[in-house]
Prior knowledge:
It contains seven helices and 18 strands. It is of the alpha/beta class. It folds into two domains: 4-125, Elongation Factor Tu (Ef-tu), domain 3 (Beta Barrel); 131-262, Nucleotide-binding domain of ferredoxin-NADP reductase (FNR) module (Rossmann fold), CATH 3.40.50.80. Strand 11 (168-174), helix 5 and strand 12 form a beta-alpha-beta unit. FE2/S2 (inorganic) cluster is lined by residues 267-270, 272-277, 283, 285.
Amino acid sequence: MVSCFEKKQYSERGNCDCFHFGVFMDSRIGHAAYEPAIYSIHSISDLTPHEKLFRIEIPDAVDFRHEPGQFVQLSVWGWGEAPISISNSPTRKGYLEFAIRHAGSLTGALHQMRPGSKIGLRGPFGNGFDVNRLRSQNLLLIAGGCGLAPLRSLIQYCEDCRDEFMDIRILYGAKTPHDLLYKSDLAAWMESETFDCRIIVDFVAPNHGYSGKIGLLPELIPPLEVEAENTTAVLVGPPMMYPFVVEALRKKGLDDERIMVSLERHMKCGIGKCGHCAIDHFSCCIDGPVFLLRDLQGTEWAG
Ligand SMILES: Cc1cc2nc3c(=O)[nH]c(=O)nc-3n(C[C@H](O)[C@H](O)[C@H](O)COP(=O)(O)OP(=O)(O)OC[C@H]3O[C@@H](n4cnc5c(N)ncnc54)[C@H](O)[C@@H]3O)c2cc1C
Ligand code: FES
């Protein structure tokens, strides 16, 4: 256990379960709920023309613990904060990775940064994927587009704890071959005996040389043999794909207790205080972002 004093020496900000500089530290999370911890970006690499991978190193003295599927509130001075998923598994310690799309002002500023630039982090927040519910199950891990960013944390977790799960299938769809995130991971997962990894893209430019499957993500589901009674599906991606994927899963016999979805909402506080992320009676930032489809009945996400 790292003492409060040691942590203060590291960060000069008191990363502990106490009242410090008037800021309440939440004992459930690795960092203060309200106060960003400051980190230097260790490395930045291109994933696609629109997404970059940011890596920060977590010093040994910092007790940062996260679950697959959780997110942080990432801040850039002058631009504010944005919720960003942690893209690596908690089993891969000592660093955090974020796959970030240039979507607007804050993410645009992030894309201009260089290794050594400073960012702030609050969190981790959200419930993450309920790994207990996934244990001893066949898994269908389904991602569209940027949805692979949070799902990768679960995929890596499954890889590192392989014995806890039965068959693991990864289904991933992107707009074009250029838009596929984590291309080297995808190549490794396709080679690996750990996973059955299938990829599809919406369209391919003439003479691109891509030899994989072309079509929409839900098309990957009908050919699969699925034992519905011991399979759970996890779905992350753009909202417009959800109804089609859910319909295909239901046709395979999966009921809504066996379909887990991760949702995105505009967020501000990340800790259930401001109401920005409400989905019916849920706060997406603390009750989610991961929900069982069963629990979303009566909301716009019912599918
Ligand atoms: C739980 C969660 C996890 C996320 N994880 C990631 C991630 O791993 N990688 C990543 O690139 N993005 C992720 N996002 C989306 C990311 O937070 C937004 O793209 C970011 O807030 C945009 O900030 P900006 O200032 O650059 O854009 P702005 O200038 O504020 O807006 C640009 C555009 O992005 C839209 N936008 C803003 N916030 C959101 C949001 N929360 N959801 C959807 N659209 C939004 C705006 O409506 C606008 O159209 C996540 C969002 C949530 C809620
Ligand atoms: S972001 Fe404030 S309540 Fe969820």
